Amino acid sequence: MTVPLPVDLARPVHEVAPELLGCELVHVKGGRRTAGRIVEVEAYGGQARDDCSHAHRYKTARNRTMYGPPGRLYIYFTYGMHYCSNVVAHAAGEAGAILLRALEPTAGLDLMARRRGVADPRLLCAGPARLVKAMGFGRTDDGRRLDAGHLHLVAGPAPRRIVTGPRVGVKGHDAGRPWRFCDADSGYLSRPVG
Q1: Which of 136, 53, 118, 133 is CA-nearest to residue 88?
Q2: Does the predicted TM-score (pTM) go above 0.90?
Q3: List of long-range contacts for 3-6, beta carbons under 8 Å, 24+ apart
Q4: DSSP secondary structure string, 89-125?
Q5: Does residue 53 carry a pLDDT above 80?
Q6: In the structure, how many helices (H) and strands (E) does the chain have?
Q7: Separation between Cα atoms, residue 145 and residue 62, nearest integer Å
Q8: Domains in the chain, please, with CATH?
Q9: Is residue 170 pLDDT above 90, yes or no?
Q10: Of all residues in the chain, what percent carry a pLDDT higher than 90?
């Protein structure tokens, strides 16, 4: 079963990223459903377009999913301890992905709390690594389609106000780009903007 994607992902990442805010990410694993409304993302472009991106220089085993078709989940391991998840989005012939920084949990909160070992709903998915753990993603999810019944995006109401700012924890000439997009009224962000 396929589920139509609510956003056209075959466009530049900085155009797609704010449109993901308000969409719901749904994951069914082992018959158990977790879901959350996307409230914070960061855009990362492709070759020679964004020196903060994994795809800045060339295609590797680690970043190959960023070069593949839009509408896939890009999972990578960072700092030797955490996984992060991204929505692959880019114009034809490009590479790029949108880091999922925070969700507002909407389903499966008890399961998320068990996976994370915390009870406060605001902390379940507030940060890229927390989000991955709460949603039950792992390295084997890299490259999975985001229009499948067990992993998909659902359209939701867009935020009333979107704030932008520089991406978190990146270095390089392009680090100051305002490619972090947040629902200004959400209490579930990984950290304040500004």
Answers
A1: 53
A2: yes
A3: 3/147, 3/148, 3/149, 3/152, 3/153, 3/154, 4/147, 5/71, 5/146, 5/147, 5/152, 5/153, 6/153, 6/154, 6/155, 6/156
A4: ---TT---EEEEEEEEEEE-HHHHHHHHT---HHHHS
A5: no
A6: 5, 9
A7: 17
A8: 13-183 (3.10.300.10)
A9: no
A10: 71
